[in-house]
Amino acid sequence: MPHFARNGEIRIAFEDLGGAGGDPLLLVMGLGASRFWWPDGLVAELVGRGFHVVAYDQRDAGESSHLPDRRVGPPVKALLHRKAPAYSAEDLTDDAVAVLDALGWEGAHLFGHSLGGLVAQRTAIRHPKRVLSLATSSAVPSDAKGLSVLRYLRLACLPRFARLHHPQTPQGNLDLAVALARILAATDQHVDEHDVREFVNKEAAHHVTSFRDQVAQSRQIGAKWQGGRLARITAPTLVLHGESDPLLRVAAARDIAAAIPGARLRTLPGVGHFLARGVWATYAGELRALADRAADGQPRTNGGPGR
Description:
307 residues; alpha/beta; eight-stranded mixed sheet; 10 helices
């Protein structure tokens, strides 16, 4: 069952995924996705490496508060809109801190994927004392705004999302999840219903369906950032990115790492945007090494692209 944190009138659902007594790790999932899209296998790898893992639903996703509808158009249009449709990007970072407060965590390691990686970057900028270390995967740099974000997107991927139409039935929800995972996976990665059934089953048990509410996704991606730049981040930082990501170019990761002092960049060949089984152990190992460096207070060095 979820717990709830509060940021003003907004309720943020979060869940303890195990590892009590370990190093606090907060997981931040991407656009339109609930916390249930963190694979059990990845969570198990993280718990096995000594992390106390908690995941939450961003506002407008999962079991967290959904905002009243506003006519903001599709997500890409909202990204380019000058005015925030409902709330600010600062609000999204404050939601993450509200979860830390509810847990009684003075600080935590943050790991954000896709849009969650963007929120994690901005949380480290806005709330530096609460972030012990920062890890992102498949994210765009916070410093990019408006049209400049488009240079990181593989635009050929976007029409495939627009063509997704599945009935709101149990089978339709499973088919939608499979179709999305196949779009986001690397070309040579085989994805079938076994790779997403756990997400769909958990969502069904909680009466949640991700990726159905395009208006909510538009509000999330349209949230405008007025805060500082990436150069202000002081937390030890790791930037992960799949070299076969069909949605975001590797240049996004390179630019994040270049902008954050001492950040380490690791790109992985044959890896896409979907958190497939093949990356779980590698990502968990990288996060463990990052947390250890943060605990030791070692000087940060730019490791450059890794393998």
